[in-house]
Amino acid sequence: PVGYMGQLIELDERLAFWPSFGNVSAILTDEGLVLVDSGNFMLAQMAHETLRGWTGERLHTVIWTHGHVDHVFGVPLWEDEAREKGWPPPRVVAHEAMPARFERYAMTAGYNATINTRQFQAEERIPFPTEFRRPDETYRDRLDLDIGRERFELHHAKGETDDHTWTWIPARKLLCCGDLFIWATPNAGNPQKVQRYPREWAAALREMAELGADTMLPGHGLPVVGAERVREALSDTAALLESIVEQTLA
Predict the structure, then answer these.
(1) 136 near 93, Cβ under 8 Å?
(2) pLDDT, tens digit, for every residue of 66-99?
(3) Dihedrals phi, psi of 155, to nearest 5 degrees
């Protein structure tokens, strides 16, 4: 079941997907490469090398879906490359709540290392980073980016985190949903970690289900292809979360 991890999936000549513990989606535009997420703090080098085997185009923009440490690392590798080649540096865009998350992470790194080691049942202590590259541009509710004659519509949602972003690329009918869908029961609660938002999460899933996306690229797991399959995945997950909320309140 994990044999696909780390192997680049080319969905078409301008769209690639790197599945790992924290997926990376890569969209080629006329102005350069756009990434949705940039890699796990332990695997970012591998993500960079794999994507560079697919395209040599400069990195224009990175959109971070949320501030968990399996999604927001590796940008300095791309910045170093841009300096060496004389390219403009890539910009990073994320929700406005993300910098505060990074500040909390740096302050509580020891605690996070302890609970992550416990959660993932690791034999050795899992390290937790203390330095974070901040986003260059943040937004509150919605932000539209026009890059290389393509529109990227960024929408804020509360779900697994308070700083989540899902991205809709209408011309491609492509949805990048982050960890709002992960091919598993949604991680809607962990008593050792901060509050999660199942009610708002379900509402975001319902909104995405109405888009008519033909392809959905999640934060974990493989792409979902086909409009009916995308709608089913989002709607079923929303129904599960709604049931959890209703049963808990009852």
Answers:
(1) yes
(2) 999 999 999 999 999 999 999 999 999 999 999 9
(3) -125, 130
